Amino acid sequence: MILSFSVFKEKIESGEKCQTIRPYNEKRYKMFCNARKYQLYWHNPRNGGKLIKEVEPKRFIPVFQFDPIFKINPLNNEPGHLNYCPIPEVLAENDGFKNFQEMLSWFLMKYRNELYLMKFMVLRW
Q1: I need a surface site. Which of 48, 65, 71, 78 has the fewest CB within 10 A?
Q2: 0.70 cut: is pTM over it?
């Protein structure tokens, strides 16, 4: 599966960034669950993006929503899985941000009023 990035190139290369948070949809979620490798690209490969590296994905893909009061609301309660509740600061740091507030600000800027209505999946490697 291809994942393209436009921020945190150095953190991806060094391994400091070991996940990405993407909008959830059921079809893509299933595709990522079955992926054997993630190909991490700097910019979209269809537009000349360059491969940074290939990585093996973690099998469990958490799903959550941002919550304006509680910050994170876990949604992945599938049979056989632990109820995943990401710790906001760890989630942010693994994604390349300094802290959760910086990450939340970035997501609010990108998704605006829709942010609290959307589901997100955490793709980890």
Answers
A1: 48
A2: yes
